[in-house]
């Protein structure tokens, strides 16, 4: 909410009242977004960055959010053909890759998964999609960074072996899918 970010920078801002206004629930991701957005706006408004940072810190303390001493590792979500084709370049800056198979499949296949007229073309197992995933895994392997598969495909037993062979190191899925996926991996 941009009004919260503007209020954080306001001289009259009451950090506790602002913290009550938006429920961050201790969410560090939201806190980092607020911090980044506030600092960016402070820069555009030519405000003192030290003062802006103090106001953000007061807000975070009131919201009972503690930022880690070290920033968390930053990865890249690979969801487009452009990101897959540029994976080698992205891998130089990323601590990990997460492949969003729902979007990647949709964009590689040029078939909207929500459009009933073309949804049947939206297949993660298609060679073009698997080749894109392979490019990402190869680039990650050369850079020594892990790759996770996110999306519905991560829990599909018929694809798990292919993902592992391509170099995927993590599969993100619902807890109910884990026993079946574990069985697939053990049987490889």
Question: Tags for this entry?
Answer:
alpha/beta
Short description:
With 188 residues, the chain is an alpha/beta fold.
Q: What would you note in describing this structure?
A:
The protein is 54% helix and 7% strand. It starts with a helix and ends with a helix. The chain has 10 helices and 4 strands. The chain is of the alpha/beta class and 188 residues long. The chain has a 4-stranded parallel sheet. The longest helix has 17 residues, at 28-44. Helix 3 (28-44) packs antiparallel against helix 4.
Describe the secondary-structure layout:
Layout: H1 2-9, H2 15-21, H3 28-44, H4 49-62, E1 76-78, H5 81-85, H6 87-91, E2 97-100, H7 101-109, H8 127-143, E3 147-150, H9 157-166, E4 170-171, H10 178-186
Parallel strand pairs: 1-2, 2-3, 3-4
Helix pairs in contact: 1-3, 2-4, 3-4, 9-10
Average pLDDT level: 81
Inertia-based shape: elongated
- Across the major sheet, the strand order is 1-2-3-4
Biggest pleated sheet: 4 strands, parallel
Number of strands: 4
Question: How far is the first residue's CA from the last residue's CA?
Answer: 48 Å
Instruction: Name the helicity range.
Output: 40-55%
How many individual helices? 10
Strand fraction band? Answer: 5-15%
Rg over C-alpha atoms, rounded to the nearest angstrom: 21 Å
Helix and strand succession? Answer: HHHHEHHEHHEHEH
Low-confidence runs (pLDDT<50, min 5 residues)? 1-12, 24-28
């Amino acid at each position: 909410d941009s009004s919260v970010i503007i209020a954080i920078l306001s001289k009259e801002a009451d950090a506790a009242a602002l913290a009550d206004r938006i429920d961050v629930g201790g969410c560090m991701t939201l806190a980092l977004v607020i911090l980044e957005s506030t600092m960016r706006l402070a820069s555009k408004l030519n405000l003192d960055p030290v003062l802006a940072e103090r106001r953000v810190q007061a807000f975070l303390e009131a919201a009972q959010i503690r930022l880690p001493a070290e920033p968390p590792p930053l990865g890249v979500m690979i969801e487009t053909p452009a990101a897959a084709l540029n994976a080698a370049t992205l891998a130089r800056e990323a601590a990990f890759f997460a492949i969003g198979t729902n979007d990647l499949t949709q964009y590689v296949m040029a078939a909207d998964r929500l459009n009933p007229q073309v949804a049947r073309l939206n297949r993660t197992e298609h060679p073009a999609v698997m080749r894109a995933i392979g490019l990402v895994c190869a680039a990650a392997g050369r850079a020594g960074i892990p790759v996770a598969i996110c999306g519905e495909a991560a829990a599909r037993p018929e694809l798990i072996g292919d993902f592992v062979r391509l170099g995927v190191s993590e599969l993100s899925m619902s807890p109910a899918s884990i026993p079946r996926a574990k069985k697939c991996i053990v049987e490889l």
